[in-house]
Amino acid sequence: MGKYRYTCLDLFSGAGGLSRGFYDAGYNVVLGVDFDDAALRTFKANHGTAETMKLDLFDHRNIDVIIDFLQKKNIKLDILVGGPPCQGFSVAGPRDMNDKRNTLYTAMVKLAERVKPQVVVLENVPGMVQTNGGIGAKRVVEDFAKIGYRMVPKLLYAPDYGLPQIRKRVFFVGLRDGETDFVFPKATVDKEHYITCEEAIGDLPSLQTDAGEIIYGEDIQDYAMAPQNDYQRKMRARSQNVQNHIGSIPIEKTRKMISLVPEGKNYKALPEEYQGIYKYHEALTRYNSKKPSLTINTGHRSHFHYKWNRIPTVRESARLQSFPDDFIFYGNKSEQYRQVGNAVPPMLGQVVAEAILPYLKDGE
């Protein structure tokens, strides 16, 4: 008999960044549940033998559908993970504590109450612990405490764990009927050694002709060079070529504007006559090659490559999110950007997944 692999189910899975981290840590990902067809197609293609289900988790009757699946497959669930949308706590949108999406996490509470996994992992925006005195986090901790889970929240900063992106996320890890609290792993990288944008994506094709024209590129392309560092080697370990690396050709005005923005600056660095055109504070932001990227968004077209006058491709954004190159995204280009931007970085998921292993008991 082979070594027991802990089972993992991903609610609000999207493309499955969080559960890909668990998969890469050796867990058996059995199911991804979401409401987005393209994201579920991506999930199914990138998590081994995992199944997917399209379900509306506002309707708690759909919890029965998930439980039926687990029973039919004779799966005892070890880990329940999920990143429920909580728009009311997000800095990016209007903060509305009564936004009904804030209550979506209760689907995780209901499912955990009934299937009793050993551990629950819930990932969310920092606003959960920062907005209104952390009322969102308190609610999550209290609701899980009622069903026997000691939820420990912690804000994790992606560059501290070797990711080339400025991204803060709160992770809650709850042990069932635990006498002890989960202890989060310490940072593995100090500030002087953060992985930079250039270290993350510098080996990918430029999508520029010799004359400086931006091109779309092919569906499958060769790498521009051999891997230049450990991060690139890690991303390329299981991949012979580059996919999801299709350029976006900006209109002439945008290309002219971005060409005037120095590396690491934004619209505020434009010549005075163009200053009034942009109001959005991240508009025309060109990445800094020597620093981690800004938080990857869902494709707002406000961030630009540190060197080329175009927005990063889906693959470049995926690299900055720590998705390996063999993780292929499906759907149209805007769906792919959305999947990448909404995802938990897999390497961050893996850090948490590996830290949970010592707390688990085989086949519990």
Q: Can you put this structure into words, describing what you see?
A:
This protein has 364 residues and is α/β, with parallel strands linked by helices. Helices cover 28% and strands 14% of the residues. It has a seven-stranded mixed β-sheet, sandwiched between helices. A two-stranded antiparallel ribbon has the order 8-9. The longest helix has 11 residues, at 62-72. The chain is globular.
Topology (elements, then pairings):
Blueprint: E1 7-11, H1 17-24, E2 28-34, H2 37-45, E3 51-54, H3 62-72, E4 79-82, H4 106-115, E5 119-124, H5 127-130, H6 135-145, E6 149-157, E7 168-176, H7 197-201, E8 220-221, H8 230-236, E9 242-243, H9 252-259, E10 285-286, E11 303-304, H10 314-320, H11 333-342, H12 346-356
Parallel strand pairs: 1-2, 1-4, 2-3, 4-5, 10-11
Antiparallel strand pairs: 5-7, 6-7, 8-9
Helicity, as a percent range: 25-40%
Note the total helix count: 12
| Mass-distribution shape | globular
**What Rg, in angstroms, do the CA atoms define?**
21 Å
Mean pLDDT: 92
Strand order of the largest sheet: 3-2-1-4-5-7-6
Task: Report the strand count.
Answer: 11
The succession of helices and strands, N to C, reads: EHEHEHEHEHHEEHEHEHEEHHH
Class from secondary-structure proportions: alpha/beta
For the record, give the distance between the C-alpha atoms at the N and C termini, rounded to a whole number: 17 Å
Q: Main beta sheet: strand number and arrangement?
A: 7 strands, mixed
Query: Which residues form runs of ≥5 with pLDDT under 50?
Result: 88-98
Portion in beta strands? 5-15%
